[in-house]
Amino acid sequence: MYCWKCSLQNPDEATFCNRCGSKLREVPLLHETARPASPPAPHETTQPTSSPTLHETIQPPPAPIIEPPSKAFEPVLTTGASIGPTGVGGWLSYFCFALTILTPLTTIGQFMVAIQDKSDPTVVMLDVIVFFGLAAYSLVTGIRLWMLKPDAVRQAKIFLIVSLALAIVSVVIFAASTETSDTAITTGVTEFFGAAISFTIWWLYLAKSKRVRNTFKHTSLRNPGN
What tens digit of pLDDT does each residue of 106-118 get? Predict the structure, then answer.
């Protein structure tokens, strides 16, 4: 009989181990130590775990959220503004030259002719105000067109209207005056028709020209506050 503690082989009839003195009959038996596991309670049943299906394991990625761009960074589309000529050139440059050079010189020349036969200082002063005012207005309008000011086209149209109105007033005054000769009246009417033709041509040019539209549309976009 082997000692369960020190593994010494002792006689079969021995009660205690000859080496360590342990009681040999206290060795636990195999059937006493190895006990079967208790079965599970009837009400505690294990549920089989279900494996995830295909549509549960593979989920499509979420759709990206596209936010609209802010209006502060919204690009300005100038549709059609880049088609055709742009800048001060062509007939626009001639119109600017006429406003800044030709019209002031012509107006001053007309003033010098008009005051030759006039002795009334009031009439002379009125002619000074009208002719020199028109020459100054023409000069300022031409300079604003050269400098591409946003409201230059509108100011040029106002100048054309003022010029035509002064031509009409001049013809009416000539016709109403009893001292005016037939030659003066004919000259006034001729000047009126010339002013009317000039008004019509340049008004249509400012309204229909691609160069004018392209040039001053870009200018108004660059200077929205002016």
Answer: 888 877 877 776 6
In b/e form, how buried is each residue of 54-71, taking b as 16+ CB within 10 angstroms? Answer: eeeeeeeeeeeeeeeeee
Place of tokens 């009031």: 122
Residues ≥6 apart with Cβ < 8 Å to 98:
142
Structure tokens at 87: 């800048």
Tell me the two tokens of residue 139: 């000069």
pTM of this structure: 0.56
Q: Please state the φ and ψ torsions of residue 166, each to the nearest 5 degrees.
A: -65, -35
Tell me how far CA of residue 69 lies from CA of 66, 74, 75, in angstroms: 9, 7, 10
Q: Is the dihedral of CA 213, 219, 224, 226 positive or negative?
A: negative
Residue type at position 14: A
CA distance to 43, 120, 147, 151, 215, per residue, from 212 (Å): 94, 44, 13, 12, 5
pLDDT reading at 30 higher than 50: no
Q: At what angle do helices 103-114 and 121-146 cross, to 10 degrees?
A: 170
